[in-house]
């Protein structure tokens, strides 16, 4: 770990000021990703701005029946919050599918959104990586790319976003509240993360000096017909090869509303409005789920080692929709896939 | 030649209560809680395994919650109460998880054991695990390369009062 200066922010404005004053400074809250990256010399901040004591830890109901979640709420506290368990079980399940109990106790909601890819080349400072060192090249495109993206990739980067929480938030239509030098703004979670294009070193649309203040969930939580299915190389505590968040609103066996998001396959949680539109008004049958899967995976491109992901994702989407439609969501503790 | 200067950060006074005893340490900011415990307080029961939050050997309880001390900066925990494996026993009586690990021979080499026991103590306090599958899932942040997992699960079941 490099030497760095340490500042404890006194309030949000102080954090923004400190952050805007030094382009090499980083915010730290839970630290679970940043400290790891600093130990690998991938991140070398000049200063850490400790925001862990700022008053961004509340979970409150909004006037229109949604939920506003402070950026510093630990992942475990969010997953186990009674309102999240009751109204947003898709989110609770996705959070509990990620990391370990210890890490979930430490990691913040805001930090989860800005965690960096686990691409092995990004972590290995001996290899070129456009995300770590812009312009140096991508080692994954012709390298060991079994875990890498199949959607939304570019000639510069095929890294994936590792978050499970973000996949559920994307499906639920969450908003991200941002505070910055020029005030507050709110963007959709689906607009928060970027595709790599020719700037893979820029993960998100956060501006200079901006910090995440809160995440907001809309009223509709899809608490009856939902499932989060995560496929990975071991049964727990591993990043997704493919994960699927599915949420349905059913009128009898007819789908009136559908949400689908994929994790582990792209630089951001992957949604397709076409795939969701194709489900609306249709019967909840495997045939229709299969068609939605094809639409969601439209344009999927494999590299030398990750071709399996396309078929894996297709089958996982269908399976997750079946689980959601039958109100038998995937258990994150009992691993048998029903 | 450019004149490069490196500003060396001051040591920062950090007050932590470890196993009921208060300590004030002067630490450079990049000192992890794990290194503070082992190198500054000589509490070497907490183990450094991977040092990247992947193995769980460094698990301690901060204000009652289990965390990876290797990914925690000590300076950020100023004022916190920390419990390590050395502080679990009370008045000469082992913590129920410690006794259960002995009863079930829930270790082989023992290197992961302090982290396993602290993690299990945290799991009990959380109250979320109800059966063996849930114990396995909620203990997945603690690796045991000897493979003592079946006995670890049995020990935790005993400590939960569900044989």
TrEMBL record, chain B:
Signal peptide: none annotated. PROSITE patterns: 2FE2S_FER_1, 2FE2S_FER_2. InterPro entries: 2Fe-2S-bd, 2Fe-2S-bd_dom_sf, 2Fe-2S_ferredoxin-like_sf, 2Fe-2S_ferredoxin-type, 2Fe2S_fd_BS, Aldehyde_Oxdr_Iron-Sulfur, Beta-grasp_dom_sf. It comes from the Bacteria. GO terms for molecular function: 2 iron, 2 sulfur cluster binding; metal ion binding; oxidoreductase activity, acting on the aldehyde or oxo group of donors. Keywords: 2Fe-2S, Iron, Iron-sulfur, Metal-binding, Oxidoreductase. Residues 12-88 form the 2Fe-2S ferredoxin-type domain. It holds the Pfam family Fer2. PANTHER family: OXIDOREDUCTASE WITH IRON-SULFUR SUBUNIT, OXIDOREDUCTASE, IRON-SULPHUR BINDING SUBUNIT-RELATED-RELATED. This is (2Fe-2S)-binding protein. It comes from Bradyrhizobium japonicum.
């Amino acid at each position: 770990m490099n030497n760095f200066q340490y500042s404890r922010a006194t309030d949000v404005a102080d954090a923004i000021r400190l952050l805007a004053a030094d382009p090499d400074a980083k915010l730290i809250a839970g630290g679970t990703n940043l400290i790891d990256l600093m130990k690998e010399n991938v991140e070398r901040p000049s200063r850490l701005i400790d925001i862990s004591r700022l008053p961004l830890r509340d979970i409150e109901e909004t006037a229109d029946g949604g939920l506003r979640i402070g950026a510093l709420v630990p992942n475990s506290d969010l997953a186990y919050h009674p309102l999240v368990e009751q109204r947003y079980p898709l989110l609770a399940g996705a959070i509990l599918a990620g990391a370990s109990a210890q890490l979930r106790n430490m990691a913040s909601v805001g930090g989860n959104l800005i965690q960096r890819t686990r691409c092995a080349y990004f972590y290995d400072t001996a290899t070129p990586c456009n995300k770590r060192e812009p312009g140096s090249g991508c080692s994954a495109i012709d390298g060991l790319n079994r875990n890498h993206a199949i959607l939304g990739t570019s000639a510069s980067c095929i890294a994936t976003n590792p978050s499970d929480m973000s996949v559920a938030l994307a499906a639920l239509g969450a908003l991200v509240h941002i505070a910055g030098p020029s005030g507050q703004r709110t963007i959709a979670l689906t607009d928060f993360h970027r595709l790599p294009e020719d700037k893979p070193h820029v993960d998100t649309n956060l501006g200079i000096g901006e910090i995440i203040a809160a995440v907001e969930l809309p009223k509709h939580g899809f608490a009856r017909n939902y499932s989060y299915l995560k496929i990975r190389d071991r049964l727990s505590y591993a990043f997704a090869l493919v994960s699927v968040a599915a949420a349905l609103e059913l009128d009898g066996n007819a789908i009136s509303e559908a949400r689908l998001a994929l994790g582990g396959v792209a630089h951001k949680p992957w949604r397709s409005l076409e795939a969701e539109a194709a489900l609306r008004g249709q019967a909840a049958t495997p045939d229709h789920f299969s068609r939605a899967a094809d639409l969601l995976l439209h344009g999927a491109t494999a590299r030398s080692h990750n071709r399996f992901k396309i078929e894996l994702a297709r089958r996982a989407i269908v399976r997750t929709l079946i689980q959601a439609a039958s109100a038998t969501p995937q258990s994150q503790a009992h691993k048998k896939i029903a | 030649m450019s004149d490069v200067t490196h500003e060396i950060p001051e040591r920062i006074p950090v007050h932590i209560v470890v196993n009921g005893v208060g300590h004030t340490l002067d630490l450079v900011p990049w000192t992890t809680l794990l290194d503070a415990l082992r190198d500054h307080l000589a509490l070497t029961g907490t183990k450094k395994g991977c040092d990247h939050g992947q193995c769980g050997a460094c698990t301690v309880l901060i204000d009652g919650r289990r965390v990876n001390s290797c990914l925690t900066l000590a300076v950020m925990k100023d004022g916190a109460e920390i419990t390590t494996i050395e502080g679990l026993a009370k008045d000469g009586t082992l913590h129920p998880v410690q006794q259960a690990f002995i009863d079930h021979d829930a270790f082989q080499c023992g290197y992961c054991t302090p982290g396993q026991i602290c993690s299990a103590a945290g799991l009990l306090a959380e109250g979320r695990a109800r059966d063996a599958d849930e114990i396995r899932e909620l203990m997945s942040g603690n690796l045991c390369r000897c493979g003592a997992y079946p006995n670890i699960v049995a020990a935790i079941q005993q400590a939960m009062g569900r044989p």
